[in-house]
Amino acid sequence: MIQKKTIFLFLLILITFKVGFVFGNSLTENIDTLVNSTENSSKHNEEEKFNPGVMIMEHIGDNHEWHILTIGHKHISIPLPVILYDNGRLSIFSSSNFHHGTASYNGYKLETSGENKGKIVKVLPDGITTDVATAKPIDFSITKNVLSLFISIFLICWIFLSIARSYKKREGHAPKGLQSLLEPIILFIRDDIAMPSIGAKRYEKFMPFLLTLFFFIFINNLMGLIPFFPGGANLTGNIAVTLVLALITFFITNVTANKAYWKHIINTPGVPWWLKFPLPLMPVVEIMSLFTKPFVLMVRLFANITAGHIIVLGFISLVFIFGNMNVYLGYGVSIISVIFAVFMGLLELLVAFLQAYVFTLLSALYFGMSQVEGHEEHKH
Amino acid sequence: MELVTPNIGLLFWMTLSFAILLFILGRYAWKPIMKMIKERERTIEDALLSAEKTKLEMANLHISNEKLLKEAKEEREMMLRDARKVKEGIINEAKQKAVNEANLIIESARQTIYNEKMAAITELKNQIASLSIEIAEKILTSELTDKDKQNQLINKFLDEVKLN
């Protein structure tokens, strides 16, 4: 009961912060629309305009600075380092030099509109205008997502190294504290994911990857639900992150695959011969499935997490859309919106665990498939 | 489109970071954790098994204890029986011996008494004989002091003889 209350309270706080966050951001948006004007110019007209689509995309996308809060017209944000690699030249400088896209620095500029919006582009000799056709520098910047990635990796390392230490210290004793919170999850991954999918004999060599994968996704999903500073980045809902995870699964699957697996792909047993010769229909399908499996992994995690963020942000946006029509209408809608957002938040907690579980389970299943034994192939 | 286009910078950092994370955790966290969990599971299993074994042993011990107790009881009973038998034997023997001894003593006493009696009788006879001879002597001496009487006596004897 107490736990339920705590979770509810936590979510309420979470949503409240999100409201503030969104409100702040709507202002940022307005400022960003003023490309070349100074910040002190009048923007009463712009303040009326609230574009939920832009706001949501801004939130689930990446950024070169970490916006924390806006008080009045003053932004409080953490400027992040920009690292550019351009034709053999490496330049590192702070993103604060761009002044939210209003200034160019070192021959580069943060584009605020058009096709390259949010990207760093080279400025033309005139110092202000840019050209879509010119080559962009390769951007290795520590963006919001990269910083969030570092924070989460630091957090994960800290959690599990401390747990490992307490395992060593309390050898042979019952788990305690954080250890007893995470041990059931570790055992769950071992006994309910790895062992049945890969088999009791071979599961051990995949355990480090599966455990790291699960906790990386799970902790980043949870951090994505926290609306303020250390969290709030849509890391697991970023296609680059899920692409890397899926690629690692793909490589492990194919590197550890045995002969029976490849035989199964090239000459699928139990299939009529005319499906393999003269037109190699089955082999083509099987080889395609090699690539579709990780692709689906990538898209599923990306889409689930991004969609969750979009829906929560959408509910919050409703407050401002109605608020722009009429202040009291905005207050009225806010109650319903917050209730829905809380509900979505709870659902997202479930999804955070579920997606980590699904990704890990499917990876384990693919590893298990690549380890088929010779006599097992007739079962398919 | 922006949303589904992977960013090269993030791809690079993600690959690097995840590889480092995998290495650090694999080496310094998962290895000891999995080892410890496995070890603890084995310890628990061993403990359960040994508890089961001990229970069985205890049951066996109980049975054998009972058997031992029963055997001891039987032995004691037997020993008691034997002791009783021995005791009775000893008593009987002693009794027998005593009776025999008594009989022997009585017999010898009787013998002695008889012998003594015979001796006494012989003595008495001899005494009586000597006494009677003495008395007869005395009588004769007193009787035969005068002649008349001697004649008278002789006559009397002679009469008696004639009568026979």
Description:
The complex is a heterodimer of chains A (380) and B (164). Chain A is mainly alpha-helical and 380 residues long. Helix content of chain A is 60%, strand content 9%. Chain A folds into two domains: 81-141, no CATH class; 145-379, no CATH class. Chain A has helices spanning 2-33, 44-48, 52-60, 144-169, 178-198, 207-225, 239-256, 259-266, 281-325, 327-370; strands at residues 65-71, 74-79, 81-86, 89-94, 104-105, 108-110, 120-122, 138-139. Chain A has a three-stranded antiparallel β-sheet with strand order 4-3-8, with no helix packed on it. Chain A has a three-stranded antiparallel β-sheet with strand order 5-6-7, with no helix packed on it. In chain A, a hairpin with a 2-residue loop joins β3 and β4. In chain A, α7 packs antiparallel against α9 (281-325). The two termini of chain A are 48 Å apart. Residues 15-48 and 376-380 of chain A have low confidence and may be disordered. Chain B has 164 residues and is an all-alpha fold. Chain B has helices spanning 8-143, 147-163. Chain B has one domain. Helix content of chain B is 93%, strand content 0%. At the A-B interface, β8, α4, α5, α6 and α7 of A face α1 of B.
Label this structure with key terms:
A: about 375 residues; mainly alpha; three-stranded antiparallel sheet; 10 helices; about 60% helix; B: about 160 residues
Order of helices and strands of chain A: HHHEEEEEEEEHHHHHHH
The Cα radius of gyration of chain B reads 65 Å
Tell me the quaternary state: heterodimer
Structural class of chain B: mainly alpha
Helix content of chain B: over 70%
> What is the tally of helical segments of chain B?
2
Shape of chain B: rod-shaped
Q: Count the E strands of chain A.
A: 8
